[in-house]
Specification:
One of its GO terms (cellular component) is cytosol. By secondary structure, the chain is α/β, with parallel strands linked by helices. The protein is 50% helix and 13% strand.
Amino acid sequence: MVPNIDIAQQSILIDSEKTVLSIAMHSPKVNFEILSRLEADDFSIESHKIIFKAISAINQNNQTPSIAILCQYLEDKNQLEKVGGLEYLADISSYFYTDEGYEDYVHIVFKNSIGRQLDRFVIEIKQLRDSKHPIEEIFMIAQQKILNIKTELKTEDAEEIKKTIVEVVKKIEALEKNGDIINGVPSGFNDLDTITNGWQKGDFIILAARPSMGKTAFALNLAINAAERQKGVVFFSLEMPKEQLVQRVLSSVSAVDASLLRTAQNLTTETWSRITNGSEQIKNMNIVIDDSPGLNVLQIQSKLRKLKRDFNIELCVIDYLQLISSIQSRMDNRQNEVAAISRQLKKIARELNIPIICLSQLSRSVEKREEKTPLMSDLRDSGAIEQDADIIMFLYRKAYYEKKEYDNLEVQANDETDVIISKHRNGATGVIKVNFLRSYGKFIDRTKNS
């Protein structure tokens, strides 16, 4: 019996499942479509699950799943009686008339499968509540279960090249017509955009550096530059509260020394004019800040999906990777945790079709070398980051080591900084020179007049 469904609906569902199975048995034309879109657990009764698995196995052996072959296969597996014998297979076979409109039957089977999954999860959550589990743990389990439900039918990703080439040529024509070489989200830095063509949809980008190199400042600059070009941006700040973050944005946009904004002492009329103008510019930016501490990757996924829908988000920035909480309370080591988080972030970028820029720490091993230029092997906690990321960038400033700038000795107003692209899955690598205006937390192209 299928739970939470009346007799008439149950009859429609069982008939739909029989129809889908019969078409899979008799129609070579759509057999593969059915087997690739559905799974055995999408069927409501055990006999249909077994038959679906049998049809799939027979199909993989390049055989036609006729009644005779199905019977023999199930007999060999000692499952023929479980599905109702030859009589039930013959009954299912009788449902085949045509494969026209098979998508409608597949849709009915799949949507009912989603409903059953939800029903099971509600029962499981109720049992956890009754057993007095901590509410935070229940919430996390519920969130993970809901997000793991596939709400769309699987589609066949394979496509003939003659179809794909049409879309590629159309894209090239559109770029030529627009006269813009940037087809992704602009970074705002000319040399960087020349290499990347902007941040591409579905890309997972790592921005790493040692403390005090300006990771957060550079990431904020990327967010501001994108927003100034009418792109929606979400900034997940797991370390810094939003008031401090916005204060840094205001300093960068208004060109007012960050220390003046922190102390609010000796502000001139001209300074207030800059602050006012800068705040008006910021109000027009489509930037959303989430400063919730200790987010796990599933919470980020859930929030990002909603923010993309509500605010037309085209770029996501996360500060930073090592502060993202693990979904599982027990993992053998932090390296495996970070590896799992990294893989999930790449999956989210592809699923939501937006670039995700994630900041990351570097290990202290870089400090022990004579040559301090960071390498991919310096990424903290996980070598898996190297595999998952489409782009890996490092910030490096020679003065950091030569002048001990973290001790505020001999601080320059304008620091030359290297943006090192060590990995670029779809393009070139290289080093880009930018200037860091420390007082404002602002990075600019070297060609610009500071």
